Model the fold of this input.
Amino acid sequence: MITGLFAANNDVLDEWEIPFGAWIEQMVRWIDQNMDGVLTVIEWPFTFLFRNFVNGPGDHPWWEVTDMPWWAVVLITFVIGSLARNAKVGAGTALALAGCGLLGTEYWDETSVTLGMILVSVVLCALIGIPLGIACGRVDAVWGTVRPALDAMQVIHSFVYMLPVIFFFGIGPEPATMVTMVFAIPPLVRLTNLGVRQVPEDVVEASRAYGAPEWRVLLDVQLPLARPAIMTGLNQTLLLSISMLGIAAIMGAGGLGLLVFRGMQNLDVALSASAGLALFLVAVVLDRISQVEASDGANLFSRIRHAWAHRRDPEELLSVADERPDAADAPAPQGQYTPAGGAERMGAQIALVGGLIAFISVFLTWGSDAGKISGYARRTDELELGGQSFNGLAASGGSWYGYIALALGLFVVACAVVTLTRPGHIGRWFGADGALIASVGMTLAVLSYLWASPSYLVPDYSDGIGVYVALLGGIVATVGSVLWIRAAPYVAHRPLNPGRSWGRAVSCGFIVGLLVIGAFSGWTFDERSDVVITDEVQAQLDRLEQEARDDPSVAAERASQITSLLATVQKKDVVILDGFNDQGAGLGPLTILIGVVGAVLVLPASGFMGDDERRKWIWSVLVAGLGTGLMLVAIAWIATLLRVADAKLVSGAGAFLTMVAGFFMLASSRNVVGEFHRSKVYAGDSDTIDLGSPASVAGELTVEPAGMV
Done:
């Protein structure tokens, strides 16, 4: 009896079932049937913005995002980034957005749709969230009413309110943007409210005491002082809007989220990877433009992680930002940059000569009778180029290897001219370390061109004098830069961490392993029909075509068989040339050698041979140069093939892995290299400084790190 009393009998719950779902359904149906006018008013701003500024039907006006040429969108991004932040951010965001276009027309079209969706979402969030946040900050009753709604919007999963939105408004970009707004607007309201409330009360009372009306108090006192909090709220709203693109794709909104979703559905790795990269670049562009100055040092992944971690308490983001050191609070640099001495000037002059030699080399002959690298990518180099010669900029000559020599040679020249005329005044990287990194990178890029074997399809190719002159220029520039950096008066802003950096040493071991994998991976994937279709396969194709002509009744079946055979051959018989293949360029051993040298140089750069800070810096600059060289070897290979490649031939993952390994090697030196700046000299009580007299400099000047007094 007792057992029966305590036995589970959950069926009784059905007798007391609360029809909550039925209640909600009744309300939704009533709203749909009786409040059509209200729903139209709610939908109108979304429809208006999308039809007039994103992708409206019919003839598109020139200002619609999806109707603009890609270069115009990139240019506008550069202008907005430069005005909102600075020229460096503007150029970086423009390049990142241009990268989305280089993935292909399909990706650019969806990128423009994505930009339009995010901008519409953020604009509407700002139009609603900022005034609502101001009202919450000034009126306690409004905040008491809005706060529970914000809590519900942040706690309830988006799938819960997605269905009513679809029921009321259907599917498409407008309903998807509504769902995105519900998820993304709470941080903006909360942070605007907090920013207004955190304005010091004595400042507000002082403005009122001087007779300022309330609208002047708000516009001239509270909003300017609350600007950092409001900008943080806008940035968080932007990040959360980006994170909702996948949900928007499910609701039929299009954009890059749709490509990612389609790739997942079809198990299309290439589509998913390319769409994911484009989505990442768009996120970087919008985040960099909208972030506040205090968060410049944080990367995108950490910022998105913080946005998600604090999506229910975004006020904590302000306290995190307040703990970061503000560069504006640092004392303004004074004094003058240390003038270049005799040894430094000699090194800079030698580097300048090397840069000029590299510049001149690209106009000389780099190859004759065929294209050395382009021969891997197109049939023209096998048949039509005999007896011709090509300079360092020609597609069948140096191509992107020549462009790299040209650009970095001019950069080294610029660094030398700046140091010889106005040291330290024009850009942080126009000095000894920037010149050495560029010189090493240029030398390795040119060396890789010489190292590479021409395609087996172009046996008549021969190197020209230009590439040897370019290599000579790179070596001279490197030697001069080494002499230059040894004498350069650079000092660290802050003391470097003492002891050995085991993490950095281990990371370079990982980089070498990545280079080994890249060397044994494919550097070219050739699916051209004349390569993969052998005589045997061609005989089968001819037989099937003949059967289709002889018997029209089986023509459809034979056409299907031909298509299937071609697909099978192109999938299984693709010609892959790795970094060690005899028929390939053979760049694998060179990249591994560069990686091993970089791993060896990391040891003194990481403090394994002493704690001298300048030595750590110089070794780190060399490691950064080797990392830059690895990146350029891969970039030049990829870009040169991309410039001339026939259809069905692409560069391989081996080049990509090499580029990634080079980036990691460069990044491993970033903290140490970036810590050093040209020192400054400061006068004591003297109003004038005689830089021409060593005695006066020694007696009246003190040398300190740049930016430190």
